[in-house]
Automatic annotation (TrEMBL):
Its main location: mitochondrion. Its EC number is 7.1.1.2. It is a multi-pass membrane protein. It catalyses: a ubiquinone + NADH + 5 H(+)(in) = a ubiquinol + NAD(+) + 4 H(+)(out). Belongs to the complex I subunit 6 family. It is found in: Mitochondrion membrane. One of its GO terms (cellular component) is mitochondrial membrane. One of its GO terms (molecular function) is NADH dehydrogenase (ubiquinone) activity. InterPro entries: ComplexI_Subunit6. This is NADH-ubiquinone oxidoreductase chain 6. It comes from Myllocerinus aurolineatus.
Length: 168
């Protein structure tokens, strides 16, 4: 399953670069965040860290979507036939390889056994993030987020107005 999620993420990355609209950009970001959260959730004993990561990434994506829609012009969505044919051929090719090849079926079984044996037995928790070896990274992250917040507030000064003032 882990290999299938990574392959699906790779397919989405290859296909969505041919589009230039902000809607496709948002869909691609949402899909890659969702797949990354699923992979991270499979590696941990619980899904809380992946839930938090997913919510933070979606919040950032909403800010990027608002910025892109306020700056970019309204472009029509064009879905070319060659891109759709290439996507279908690529998906079919990968499905044939994964179902027919013994290596991939063995790899999937190996990954599931490996994940069940190693990662599920380790007690992972978020409280270990603030322990002695990691406190410096945690403190630097807090300082970085504080400085970024101050810079964003100073850049978005009220007297400059919005990016598209005719909408107000």
């Amino acid at each position: 399953m882990l290999f299938n999620l990574i392959t699906l993420s790779w397919i989405f990355s290859l296909v969505f670069y041919s589009f230039k609209t902000s809607l496709i950009f948002s869909i691609h970001t949402f899909n890659s965040n969702f797949i990354s959260s699923m992979v991270l959730g499979n590696l941990n004993i619980n899904f809380w860290f992946s839930y938090i990561l997913f919510l933070i990434m979606i919040g950032g994506m909403l800010v990027l979507f608002i910025y892109m829609t306020s700056i970019a012009s309204d472009e029509k969505f064009k879905f070319s036939k060659t891109t759709s044919i290439l996507l279908l051929m690529y998906i079919m090719f990968n499905m044939i390889i994964m179902f027919k090849d013994e290596f991939f079926s063995y790899l999937d079984t190996f990954n599931s056994n490996f994940l069940n044996m190693n990662f599920k037995e380790i007690n992972l928790s978020l409280s270990k993030f603030t322990n002695i070896p990691n406190w410096l990274i945690f403190f630097i992250l807090i300082c970085y987020l504080l400085i970024t917040l101050i810079v964003v507030v100073k850049i978005a000064y009220k007297k400059n107005g919005t990016l598209r003032p005719w909408l107000m």
